[in-house]
Amino acid sequence: MLDLGRTFLQSVERSPHALALVDGEFRVTYEEWHRVILNAVHGLHELGLGHGDRLLAVLQNRWEMATLHWACQFAGVVMVPLNWRAKPDELDYCVTNAGVKAIVYEPVSADAVMQSPAAQNVPRVGLDDAPGRTATIDSLLAPARGATVTPAADAGDCSLILYTSGTTGKAKGVPRRHRHERAAALAHVAQNLYRHGERTLGVMPLYHTMGVRSLLSMALVDGLFVCVRRWNARLALDSIAQYKLTCLYLVPTLYHDLLADPAFDHMDTTSVTKLGFAGAPMSDGLLKRLATAFEPELFVNHYGSSEVYTFSIDQHATLKPGSAGRAGINTRLRVVKLDARSPDEVAAVHEEGQIVADLLGDEAFEGYWNRPDANAKSLRDGWYFTGDTGYFDADGDLYVTGRVDDMIISGGENISPVDIESVLSLHPCVDEVAVAGVKDERWGQRVVAFVKRRDYVDCETLDAWCRASDLVNFKRPREYVFVDDIPKSPVGKILRRKLQAGEFQRDERGAIGRTGPIQQHQHIEITKE
Q1: pLDDT at residue 306, rounded to an integer
Q2: Is the pLDDT of residue 220 over 90?
Q3: Which of 117, 204, 427, 459 allows an S-S link to 210, with CB 3.0 to 4.6 Å?
Q4: Which portions of the sequence form the region Disordered (predicted)?
C-alpha cells in the first residue's frame, strides 16, 4: 500500500493545476501546494525533527495546519494535533505522553503553551506573533534548496496520534499508521460515493478524525478543501455558494446551525449533492428538515471513532431514521451482551448490548499510546470494545443507542436516551433535545428531557406527544427542563454530564430562569405499566 506522502503525489501528478486548498485569500493548486509542503518538510528537518519524531500542532483549521499535516506525512514525522482550546494541564500531559520534539501554535493557544512546563523544553514555532515562540512559521516555511523530497515514510509507519477527548480521566492517544489512514480515507471516498474533483468544507477540526478524513479524501479525488478556522454558519454558506461545494461532512449541530441561519433561504446551496454526518446521532426532525432543504442525492450516516474510523454506514439515512446501517467495507461488527467479557457473548436480535469491532479491520488501530490500562479495558481477544450501546434489528441494521455510561437505569429498566430524543425531536416546537438520567431516591434514576424550544411549548404538551407515540410508558420523561442551549463538546457531542450537574441556563419563557440543580415544578408523575 502507498504511504500518504506518495498518495498526495498522485494528485500532484494527475491534476497539478486543480485548486486544492483555500483559506481566505490563500489559494493554491496541487502543484503550488506541493512546493509549500516541501518547504515545510525542509523546515521540520532544520528544526531537528526526523523519522518517527512527534510534532504537536495546536492550530485552528488554517492553511498552515493542513500544510503541516501533509509535510509530516512526507517527512515521516508523526503529527500530533491537539484542540486549540486545550487547557495548560491538558497540553502539558500530551506533550509529555507523546514525547513531542516541537510545538506549532498560534495566539489563541499561546497561554496553554506558555503555561505548560513540558512545552518550555522543546522548540516552539509561533504563528501571527504568538508570544513565547522560539521560531516563526515564516522560518519553518522558508523556501528550501533542492528540487524534490522523496517521501521518507512507508505504509507501516505512524502517521499521527489523535487524542480522544474523553469525558473522564486523561485523554488517550490513538496512534494510526499510514496504511490505517489511507484505508480509512479510501473507505470514506467509496462510502460517500465521492467523484473526481469533489469540493468540501474543511470545518471539522483537524485534531478530530472527521476533519482528517475530509482532508485526506479530497486529495484522493484531486478535490478542494476550503478551510474554516472557526465555525460560522454564514461564512460556511458563503463558502458553499462561492466555491460551489459539492459535499458536506459535519456533525448534526453544525447542520442545525446552517438551517437556522437567516441567510440560508437566500443562499445558493444547489451545488451540494451529498450530505454526510457523524460524531453524534441526528434527530429524526433534523433529518427531515435537511432532506427537504438540500434534496441530496446521497445522505450518509457514518458511525465510527478515532480508534476504528468506520464502524458502520447507512447511505440512506432518511429511510430508516436512527439506523447506523451495516458494517463499513473494512470492518466487522458485533453486539455483545452489556456485561460481556468476551466478543463471543453475542446479544440477540433487538437485544441492547455493547458494540464491538474486529481489530483486524484495515482501519483499526492497534492499541493506545503508552496506556496499557486503557488497552486492558477496551481490547479483548482481538476486538475493540467501543463503550457504545446498540442493537441489530431483524434486517441486520445497527442502531446506536448511546454510551454504556449514558444508559439510564430507572426502576430496574435499561433506558436509552436516543429513543426518547428521537420522539421528542419530531415535535414542531422542539429545536433540540437531550435526555439524561438524574439521581432519584425512588427510581434510582429518573428520565429527564432537556429541551431547547423553537416555539413555546410546555411540559404537559410534550408529555401528551410522548403518550401518543410508540414510546413505552416507562421510557417517558418524568421531568422536562427548558434550556437556552444544549451543552456540547467542540465536535458536537452532547455533554449529558453537564446537564446532570445542572450546568445549563434555563429558558425563562414560562419557567423560573436560573442556572443550577433541576427544579421539581416541571415534574410529571409516571407509573410503570
Answers
A1: 95
A2: yes
A3: 204
A4: 510-529
Pair 227, 61: CB distance under 8 Å:
yes
Q: State the span(s) of the chain assigned CATH 3.30.300.30.
A: 407-522
Strand partners, 444: 440
What CATH code would you report for 231-404? 3.40.50.12780
Could you tell me if 212 and 225 are in contact, meaning their C-beta atoms sit under 8 angstroms apart? no
In angstroms, rounded to a whole number, what is the distance separating the alpha carbons of residues 6 and 11?
9
Using CA atoms, how far apart are residues 104 and 77, in angstroms rounded to an integer?
A: 14
Q: Count CB atoms within 10 A of the CB of residue 469.
A: 16
Least Cα distance to 509 among 484, 487, 486 occurs for 484
Which of 479, 443, 437, 474 is closest to 458 using CA atoms?
Answer: 479
What is the spatial distance between Cα 255 and Cα 280, in angstroms, rounded to a whole number?
A: 12
Strands 398-403 and 383-392: antiparallel
d(CA 314, CA 141): 42
Instruction: Decide if pLDDT at 187 tops 50.
Output: yes
Q: How far apart are CA 448 and CA 445, in angstroms?
A: 9
Q: Residue 5 and residue 148: Cα distance in Å, rounded? A: 12
